[in-house]
Amino acid sequence: MRAHLLAARLAGEVATTRERSLDRYRRLAARDPRVLMGLEPENDWRIEELLRLMAGKCGVSADPTHTSGHDVIDPDRTMVALGAFADRLGAVAAAGAPVLLGTGHPHRLLGFYAALAAGLSSVGCPVLTPAQGRTIDITTRFGVRTYNLDYVRGVAMVRDGGARASSNEPGAHTHSPLPLRTALAAAADGDGPLPALVIGDHGWVCGAGQLGFEAIGLADSDDPALFVGQAEGRVSVVVPLDDTVRSDYYLPLTRYVLNRACLSR
């Protein structure tokens, strides 16, 4: 697994640049909602504190004078977190508890989450799909855009308002917590039970943690909000890895998680 993480650049030197990560850390310190992804930190996180946190959780450099080049994610930290991620799935599977899965990276991570959804469903965990087709207005850097909440193989995502619902169109990239909030509001209104666990990334994890739901997920080195949520006790597990590599590169991680959580079929 460690060799694969390095060869696929899921860990080790990753495509995420140091410049991009530092910019995200500064924006989180300034409480930019686009970087917070639905989290409202309890503490005032200064850039120096964020660097120390991300160095400890991801393995990036804690040196503030290191300002260029590629980020580095420690593969050993990735493997430890991936084991904790699988253990939480296993516990939920053993309880047969309802789960909600969602992603802001459908082009890359749909297959990973869909395999988890199938495994959980196979052992009797309800995989929730509340607010299917609901319209959501999300503010982007291009202005307010209308999206539809959709589920593909049990995994929530958003599509452009005019997109045709099809598994061949995996959806739009987003950091917004609004899809998660929309799904939870619908579940609370009777569109299925509330989840015992939310699994995903970006606003799905941060938004759930902020609202008091247990959440676990994946995060790149330029996604500090998830690690802040973990540090403050509102996110259970965050797996540090590059979240934009080829989708098939996540297959060994999928197999590992399913086997460790006893969800292989």
Principal-axes geometry comes out as: globular
Number of strands: 9
Specify Rg, calculated over alpha carbons.
17 Å
Category from helices, strands and their pairing = alpha/beta
Q: Strand fraction band? A: 15-25%
Averaged pLDDT: 95
Uncertain spans: none
Distance between the termini: 21 Å
Give the biggest beta sheet. 7 strands, mixed
Strand order of the largest sheet: 4-5-6-3-7-8-9
CATH second-level architecture: 3-Layer(aba) Sandwich
CATH class: Alpha Beta
* Share in helix: 40-55%
Protein name: Phosphatase
Pfam family, one: Phosphatase
Quickly describe the structure.
It comes from Streptomyces orinoci (Streptoverticillium orinoci). With 265 residues, this protein is an alpha/beta fold. It is 41% helix and 18% strand.
Topology (elements, then pairings):
Blueprint: H1 2-7, E1 12-17, H2 18-29, H3 33-36, H4 47-57, E2 70-73, H5 75-95, E3 99-102, H6 106-122, E4 135-140, E5 143-152, E6 155-160, H7 178-188, E7 197-200, H8 202-210, E8 215-219, H9 224-231, E9 237-240, H10 251-260
Parallel strand pairs: 3-6, 3-7, 7-8, 8-9
Antiparallel strand pairs: 1-2, 4-5, 5-6
Characterization of the model:
The chain has 265 residues and is of the alpha/beta class. It has one domain: 3-Layer(aba) Sandwich (Rossmann fold), CATH 3.40.50. 41% of the residues lie in helices and 18% in strands. Helix 8 links the parallel strand 7 and strand 8. The two termini are 21 Å apart. InterPro entries: Phosphatase_SCO2771.
